[in-house]
Amino acid sequence: MYAIIEESGQQFRVEEGQVLQIDHREAEPGAKLTFERVLLVADEKGTRVGKPLVKGAKVTAEVVGPSQGPKLEIVQVRRRKSSRRHIGHRQRYLTVRVTGIKE
């Protein structure tokens, strides 16, 4: 069984037990999250596609904790000006584990 959910403008294909990274928000490890924007649910009975959402479908998840993406380095160099700028960035994420898909 799997579902496609929409979270923060992105779509994720999720199954029970799957670990995924969503945009950062304040949440304690062990807290429960519910995703109600379910676009599609598929199981052995068939596939239900929402118009735009599947009515009554929910995906529950447990917060594992915060995490960070890879380090991105931005270097700007202006030729012949002795001008350089070096900036780094790491995107913050929230790691969650999907615990259930309900129709």
Structural descriptors:
103 residues, mainly beta, four-stranded antiparallel sheet, 65% strand, elongated
Characterization of the model:
The chain has no helices and 10 strands. The chain has one domain. It has strands at residues 2-7, 10-15, 19-23, 32-35, 38-43, 46-49, 58-68, 72-78, 83-89, 92-102. Strand 8 (72-78) and strand 9 (83-89) form a beta hairpin. The chain is an all-beta fold. It has a 4-stranded antiparallel β-sheet with strand order 2-1-5-6, with no helix packed on it.
Span of the ends, CA to CA: 11 Å
Inertia-based shape: elongated
How many DSSP helices?
0
The biggest sheet amounts to: 4 strands, antiparallel
Neighbour order of strands in the largest sheet = 2-1-5-6
Mean pLDDT across all residues, rounded?
96
Compute the number of structural domains.
Answer: 1
Radius of gyration: 19 Å
Proportion of residues in β-strands:
over 45%
Query: What is the share of helical residues?
Result: under 10%
The helix/strand class is mainly beta
Query: What is the helix/strand order?
Result: EEEEEEEEEE
- Unreliable stretches (pLDDT < 50, length at least 5) are none
Strand count: 10
